[in-house]
TrEMBL record:
It comes from Litchfieldia salsa. Residues 15-22 are annotated as: G1. GO terms for cellular component: cytosol; plasma membrane. The lineage of its organism: Bacteria, Bacillati, Bacillota, Bacilli, Bacillales. One of its GO terms (biological process) is ribosomal small subunit assembly. It is found in: Cytoplasm; Cell membrane. One of its GO terms (molecular function) is GTP binding. It is a peripheral membrane protein. This is GTPase Era.
């Protein structure tokens, strides 16, 4: 038997207001919950939740602005949303089974034509319709777009939600575990901490390092006394960048750690033991930093 690979990736849920996007998200991440708090900075796209299990992790990304723009900003948001749709691994296009096809859907489908990302049609609120109504609905949407999967669910009652999760997993690429599974990550501090580390690294290496590094939190826990242990990994794309971040005999990494620790201690109000690693990740770092450009923060 071959060893099972770890699969992970990013999923965007789009759809008209009130189709049940939030209800679905809560249902999926509800058990092994890792709902992300809002970032201190305004982010245009943010992680809404993370679903984790032994061999897979699904990171749900919020994609605001995928609706008919009413003003200039809406226009801009639309561009951001479209770019995000290109970066995610799967798009869930959610509709309300009770409602007919509407102009909002038309607009979204138009936008979907421009992306090669797999799109699932998720027909929600099937608890509200007679089974006979389902087939015509599927036919209607099938004629408009070539969906990779069409999955009827009830986000409220949970019907078919596990099937949808299985289908998502089937489409996810092999990838890293972006978030620790064993931690309830509803503490906004966790993200501010990685941002502080990233900030110091960028600050100290301004010239040499493009703004595209990522910081991933490996662990953060209270230990004896009031000391908080923080372990984090700075991810770069090339070996040369790793060398710069580490510096002569580790001097750069030490300085990054020293400055970050000062800020983190101020943030948490406790003594901090900070351990930093540097890792080269050619493949997925790229994707993560592109998402970062759109406001994504790890
Ligand atoms: P969003 O705007 O797309 O995030 O939609 P929400 O998740 O906020 O849901 C809008 C409304 O639809 C809420 O009142 C939900 O309780 C309801 N809703 C969501 N999913 C279902 C479902 O599967 N069945 C039924 N009957 N109601 C649902
Ligand atoms: Mg919502
Ligand atoms: K986040």
């Amino acid at each position: 038997m071959s060893k099972e690979v770890y699969k992970s990736g990013f999923v965007s849920i789009i759809g008209r207001p009130n189709v049940g996007k939030s209800t679905f998200l809560n249902k999926v991440v509800g058990q092994k919950i890792a709902i992300m708090s809002d970032k201190p900075q305004t982010t245009r796209n943010k992680v809404q939740g993370v679903y984790s299990e032994n061999q897979a992790q699904i990171v749900f990304i919020d994609t605001p602005g995928i609706h008919k723009p009413k003003h200039k900003l809406g226009d801009f948001m639309m561009k951001v949303a479209q770019n995000t749709l290109k970066e995610v691994d799967i798009i869930l296009f959610m509709i309300n089974a009770e409602e007919g096809y509407g102009r909002g859907d038309e607009f979204i489908i138009e936008k979907l034509q421009g992306t090669s990302t797999p799109v699932f049609l998720v027909i929600n609120k099937i608890d509200q319709i007679h089974p006979d109504q389902l087939l015509p609905l599927i036919e209607k949407y099938n004629n408009l777009y070539s969906f990779k999967e069409i999955i009827p669910i009830s986000a409220l009652e949970g019907n078919n939600v596990p099937t949808l999760v299985d289908q998502i997993k089937a489409y996810l690429p092999e990838g890293p575990q972006y978030y620790p599974i064993d931690q309830v990550t509803d503490h906004p501090e966790r993200f501010i901490v990685t941002e502080l580390i990233r900030e110091k690294a960028l600050h100290l290496t301004r010239e040499e390092i493009p703004h595209s590094i990522a910081v991933v939190m490996d662990s953060m826990e209270k230990r004896e006394g009031n000391t908080v242990y923080v372990g984090a990994t700075i991810i770069v794309e090339r070996d040369s960048q790793k060398g710069i971040i580490i510096g002569k005999q580790g001097s750069m990494l030490k300085e990054i750690g020293k400055r970050a620790r000062t800020d983190i201690e101020a943030l948490l109000g406790s003594k901090v033991y900070l351990e930093l690693w540097v890792k080269v990740q050619k493949d997925w770092r790229n994707k993560m930093s592109q998402l970062r450009d759109f406001g994504f923060r790890d």
